[in-house]
Design goal:
By secondary structure, the chain is α+β, with helices and mostly antiparallel strands. It contains seven helices and eight strands, in the order H-H-E-E-E-H-E-E-H-H-E-E-H-E-H.
Amino acid sequence: MRHCIAGFDPIGYEHSCNVAKAALLKRTPLQFVWKRCMFIQTQDTPNPDSLKFLPGVTVLEAGQTMDFPTVSSAQCSPLAKLLFRIEGVRSVFFGGDFVTISKQEGAEWRVIKPEAFAVIMDFFASGLPVVKDAQPTSSTQINDEDDENVQMIKELLDTRIRPTVQEDGGDIIFMGFEDGVVKLKMQGSCSSCPSSIVTLKNGVQNMLQFYIPDVVSVEQVTDDVDEITEKEFTRLEKQINQKDEKSDEKL
């Protein structure tokens, strides 16, 4: 579901116009004004805690994605580092033409969105590279050592499944195929989405089993970074709840 007509967001529009007006008042060159006057659209995702921002310019090459689940993982991206400075941002994800921001539980979009608009707009006006010294995800690249089943799995993921998932602001990464089990990792808006398991079982698993009889099941996997991130947020949430309880007791 898009905001207003064709994804038009009044907050982004207002910020764009204000930037342009301010630049004109300062006698900024017209070319620079147009660079700053971006009309960023937003798009809801199945995950209420994730929002997709469409700046109208290329973020990564078509089909490529990059996931930044933590601040430390964002050191290779000037844009991701800036977005993590916004209070309430939990993770950042890049697609070919979009940026997905996931917020912490309890944070409000009405606070995060205006700041995100400003950061994205100013960044693309700066001309800096989105990513430095890092390669976007390409887990579905078919290698010579892949057997026939793995090649078919990667082909289906790349042509039939990933484009749909990326439309929702996330991605599915191939992690392995062993004893009939396809191991996949969810990224972006899908990583913490309440319906991610349903998507895997009812959507991805059914499709892979239809085309590849050797596929028994599909499982979601996580890596060490995901586990550390989840533990850290659980710890922070516990601290916040304890502070709230103490405040209530004082009242």
